[in-house]
Amino acid sequence: MTARPLRLLTVGHSYVVALNRRLPNEIARVGGGRWEVTAVAPKFVHAELRDIALEADAEELCQLEPVDLHASSRLHVMTFGFRLRELLRQPWDMVHIYQEPYIFAGWQAAYWTPNQTPLVFFTAQNIAKKYPPPFSWMECYGLDRCAGWIGCGETVIEALLQKGYGRRPHRRIGFGVDVKEFRQDKERRQRTRQRLEWDDSIPVIAFLGRFVAEKGLTLLTSALDELRSPWRVLFIGNGPMRNSLEEWGKKYPEQVRIVSATHDDVPAYMNAADILCTPSQTMANWREQFGRMIIEGFASGLAVVGSDSGEIPHVIGDAGIVVGEKDQSAWVRTLERLIEDEALRADFSQRGRVRAEEHFAWPVIARQHIEFFEQ
Question: Which among 36, 109, 180, 235 counts the fewest CB atoms within 10 Å?
Fold first, then answer.
C-alpha cells in the first residue's frame, strides 16, 4: 500500500514574484512525490521599487493559491485576506510561514492555523530587538504556537536564543541560488561587456543590491577614489542613493556603469565582472542578515570581498575575503591586491563556486527544509 503524500502549505508575501517561489517548487521537486506542496501568494503587492501583480510560472511544481494582501506597502501591518483562513482550515501535515513572527501577517497565519497542525516559521532577524506591543505579543504568540523555527544564519540563531527562542527546535538554513543560471559563461560575458562598451583589458568590480546607505556605497566609492591600479565598476540595482551615485560616477565616465536590472538580467551582468564587493555597514537597528548577492557571486565565479557586518563572514567562509566594515584603507589594499593578482582571483573563483554548489544550491536548501519538517 502506497503512503499518501505529506501536505505542506507555505505562506509568504514574497511569493508574489515567481522567482521567490523557488523554495516551495524545489521542495516539491526534491521531495520526489513524498511532499505535496501548496504555496499561498498575494494577488498584488505594493513593493518598495515597483507594484507587482502575481507572476505566473510555466514550470510551477507546487499548487499556487492567490489571496488578497492588504496594506502591502507597510510590512509590519500588512494582512492577508480571509481566503488564507479557509486554506489553513484544510488538513495539512505542515504549515510553513515564510514571514517574521512579530508582524501582523506572520501572527495572522499562526493564529489561523489549527492547534493540531505543526507550524514552522522563518526569520531573518539577527538583532535581539525588544518590540513594543502589539508586535511583542505577536512574537510571543508565534513562538509559543510553533513546532519549530528556521533562521537564515548563525547571527539569527545567536540573537534569538538570547530572547528565549531556544525552547523550540530550530535549524539554520540559508537562502538558495540557482547554480545553473548563475555560472561562468564566456559568451554571455563577452556580449554583456560589449553592451557596456568595455573590453577585457581591465578587471571589473561589481556591486549588486539596493542603493542605500547601509549597503556601504559610500565606503566603496571612497575606496575606489584611492585605487592606483586601473579599475572599472558596475553597480547593479536601484534605490534612494542612485542620484548621488550617478553624480559620483561623472568623475569616471569611462570606468563607471550603473544599471537597473530585473533578476533575469542579473546573471549576465555578474558574468561581466571579476570581483564582487558587499561592503554592508551595521546600523543601530540593522546589520546584514545574509547577503544573497554573495552566493550569486560565488555561483558566477567572482572573487568575493565582504565586510564583517552581521552574517557576511559566515556566508563567505573561506571562499572569499572579509574586511572590516569601517576599515577603508583595508578595502583599498584588498581591491588593489585582487585587481593585480589574476591567479588569486581565479583561486577565489573556484572556491566560491564549490561553496555555492555544496552549501547554497537550491536542492541542498530544499533537502534541509524537508529534513527539518520531517523531524
Answer: 180
